[in-house]
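User: Working on a comparison across species. This one is Transmembrane 4 L6 family member 1 from Cirrhinus molitorella. Can you predict its structure so I can line it up against the others?
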Amino acid sequence: MKMCSLGFARSLGFALIPLATCCIVANVLLFFPDGKMNFIQDDHVTKYVWYFMGIGGGGLAMLVPTCVFLGMGKCADSCGTDSCAMCGSAFAALVGLAGSAYCFLISAVALLEGPYCFTLMGWMSPFENDGGKYLFSREKWVECIQPAHIVEWNVTLLSILLGLSTLEFLICFLQLVSGLVNAVCRPCCYKQEYSLNV
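Assistant: Here's the predicted structure for Transmembrane 4 L6 family member 1 from Cirrhinus molitorella:
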């Protein structure tokens, strides 16, 4: 049972590594619409990229649960029991939940508002008050003249961030439940076994 719960946590830790890496990459790409640097130099990118939802929330914040989940075997050995390790993993999972939720919320808001682009009326967010309806009306996307294909660029990367942060949230939630169950229930089971043996 002990090896099973520790192995499960380690597998979740390994799963978070590519997810966090992809979140960071997706957020970085949002700074360079159409793969060009001049837009960020002229401050012609959506304000939401500066919230670092993928870099901070879905990326760096995941280092805490990842390191804790992967190092649980050593923690259990040093503690002499895996109950404290499971408690630690539950707290680390809370950090992961907060980071992934932040990434999801900011990405969702950015997706609903739409990109910041050059239109016939100048630089603006033409779909800001659209309520996300532009996502289902591709004919409106031509309102964004520059950067080229900015709507597709934003929609794709923000959708990726939404999907990745959802997976991160589920992984951290699984470990939170597993950690709490093992930390709370296992000592009770040990006491019950001890009383039966006596």
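For your comparison, note: The longest helix spans residues 150-197.

User: Helpful, thanks.
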